[in-house]
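Okay, any thoughts on this one?
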Amino acid sequence: MLQKAIFFDRDGVLTEEGGSPVREHELRIYREAFDALKIIPKSFKKIIFTNQAWVAKGLMTEEEVNKTHRKLEQEFKKQDVVIDGIYICPHMDAHNCSCRKPKPGMLLQAQKEHDIDLEHSYVIGDMLRDLAAGKEVGCTTILVMTGHAGKDKQYALEPDFVVENVYEAVQLILQRENKIGL
């Protein structure tokens, strides 16, 4: 049976956006991110997907990114929250890879590995490029006003919903799902 998922961009949605590479000791998770992920039913996969061009630029190694993600997972685990998957794109736009948002490669990889029903899943992001990836594969998209708050006007798309933060996004999802039967 296919699973529903909530896909989260990392920087600006779950963690503070720093504008520079975020190493494990610099990781700052939004308080509301803990509260949000705690209320997600087990019937949803919790997946993080993030562009990390710092790797291609030589400012960070993939191992440093992985250490940051292990720390992120540990912090959520302390709150009894399990992250089901973390997907990164280490490339720059110039590489024209299939995984860098706004392309949906990370979502498609997660779909295969976790048997995800993309049309009944959600993407939460602070940039329109996050949402463009979700729109391409039929996900419902939610823009949060934290981080970049959708100021990357490079993409001609309208989010399905706009909310203040990740907690409000998850509440919205649960309200919608309760109306249609979780």
Q: What stands out?
A: The radius of gyration is 15 Å. The chain has a mean pLDDT of 92. The beta strands are 4-8, 44-51, 85-89, 122-125, 140-144, 161-163. The longest strand covers residues 44-51.
